[in-house]
Amino acid sequence: MLANWFKSFLFIVLIYLSIDGFSQKVIPFHMWKTKDLTIANSGRKIKGLSFQEKKVIFYINLARMNGKLFVETYLKDYMEDVRVPKNKYYRSLIKTLKEQKALPPLLPQDDLIKEAVKHAKEMGRTGKKGHRSASHKSFEERMRSFRLKYNKMKESNQYGFPDALGIVIDLLIDDDQESLIHRRTLLNKDLHYVGVGIRAHKKWQVNTSLLFGGVLIEVEK
C-alpha cells in the first residue's frame, strides 16, 4: 500500500515539476501565428485530457503543421536546454521536418483517449512495455472494434518522460529505431485523430500511450 502511495506521489511531483518548468521556460510563441497555435491546440477544450496530455497533442500538431518552424523554435530550444546528443537520428529528423509538407492537425477523439489511458494504466500497473494489453491481447485484438470506425490504426508508446515536449521530441527523434516507426506515425498524413494517456509506471516512473486513427469509415444506415 505504501509503495503504491509513493508511486502516485512521485508521479504527481513529476507532473508538477514539468508544468512548473513549462511555465518558467521562454516559449518562442512570437514566431508562430496566433491562429496556427490555436489550431494546433486542438485538445484545449477536452475535459478528459490533462494539461500535459493536451500539450502532447499541441506539440505533435506544430511539428505536423510547420516542421521547419518547429525545428527553429521548439526543437532548437529543447535541444539546447536538455543537451541531447545530436546523432544521426537527430540530424535525419531535422532533414525530415524541414522538407515536410504541411500536414493537418490531429483531432482528439473520446474513444481513442479512453483506450490510450487504459493502456497507459495497464502498462504502468504491470511494469511492462509494448502494445499487448495486461490480459495479453495483441494490438490487432485490441483494435478490432476501432477498425470498424477508422480505416487505419497506429500506436506509439513512450517511457520515462513526464513533460509533453520531451515526450514528443523523443518519439520524433526515435533514437536507435532504424525503422523510425514512431516518427513516421506522428508525421503520417493518413492519420487524423488521436488519443493520449499519461500515467505512472511501475518501472519507468511515467509512461505515455498515443493511439491514432485514420479516416472515419462511413457506415451505411
How would you summarize this macromolecular structure in one to three sentences?
By secondary structure, the protein is an alpha+beta fold. Helix content is 50%, strand content 12%. Strands 1-3-4-2 form a four-stranded mixed beta sheet, with helices on both faces.
Describe this structure in words.
- With 221 residues, the protein is an alpha+beta fold.
- 50% of the residues lie in helices and 12% in strands.
- It is built from nine helices and four strands.
- It has a four-stranded mixed sheet, sandwiched between helices.
- The chain starts with a helix and ends in an 8-residue tail after the last strand.
The largest pleated sheet is described as: 4 strands, mixed
What's the mean pLDDT score? 89
Number of helical elements: 9
SSE run: HHHHHEHHEHHEE
Low-confidence stretches: 1-24
Percent range of helical residues = 40-55%
Rounded radius of gyration (Å)? 17 Å
**Structural class by helix and strand composition:** alpha+beta
Cα shape: globular
As a percent range, the share of strand residues is 5-15%
Count of β-strands: 4
Largest beta sheet: strand ordering: 1-3-4-2
What is the terminal-to-terminal distance?
Answer: 51 Å
